[in-house]
Structure prediction request, 282 residues.
Amino acid sequence: MTAIPGASVAITGAASGIGRALAIELAGRGADLALADRDEAGLQTLAAEIASASRRRVSLHRVDVSEPEAVAAFAREAIAAHPALNIVVNNAGVALLGHFHEIDQAQIEWLFNINFWGVVHSTRAFLDHLASQPAAHIVNVSSIFGIVAPPGQTAYAAAKFAVRGFSESLRHELQLANSPVRLSVVHPGGIRTNIVRNSRAGSGVLDNERRAQSIERFDAIAQTSARDAALRIIKGIERNEPRILIGGDARFMDILQRFRPAGYWKVMAKHVWKTPTQEHKA
Prediction:
């Protein structure tokens, strides 16, 4: 178990969405925070909101997680500001709209540099320090698309599956070494954040209606608030859960994948995605 009161927590992608909700909830439970994001204005607004409700120590860090040197500097600065830092939440992520033939290699690499390599860079930068703490925890945010892979998500699903594989293997290594560091991988379903609205479109996506349709579809299935997602992650940290599924949709898709590992998409297309027949047969 990793206790939240008295903890010091580093969070990437903290200015919005799940990261922002986590910062607020953790501060309310007695944790100090090192908050990282590219959005400096968003970080300042968040820090002001936390300061109005609690007296926790909060440090702010402008970080692009796709840059290894920037992540290493963040770790050094966060540890200097919070010497007892013992929880790291690798949450920063982006989305990319388009089928494989509509996205180019540079766009896939852009997404991987943030969604996967950002997790790896941060884990490497913090791990030695975490291992020196009496109790420590790494939380790597994957996705339900790290368990199932619908069409139109080739880059995103590949990166989130990679986060899952990296996290599970590292967890087993930490267990073999009797490390004090615990590791949870998070698989959110549809969470009401702006990740789809802020997504990039593939270079081959020429239909402007596609983004509107994607947002509409996401809004229809995103039934979990960012705050509820944050509360579920905190419970998972406290219970040392290796896998944290968030939302009824995520739990359903996880079970579906277990029972129909090669055929889950037909069920998802009909009951979850509600994709037109001609599209999901493609």
Observations:
- The longest strand covers residues 181-188.
- The chain has eleven helices and nine strands.
- The chain has one domain: 8-271.
- The chain has a mean pLDDT of 91.
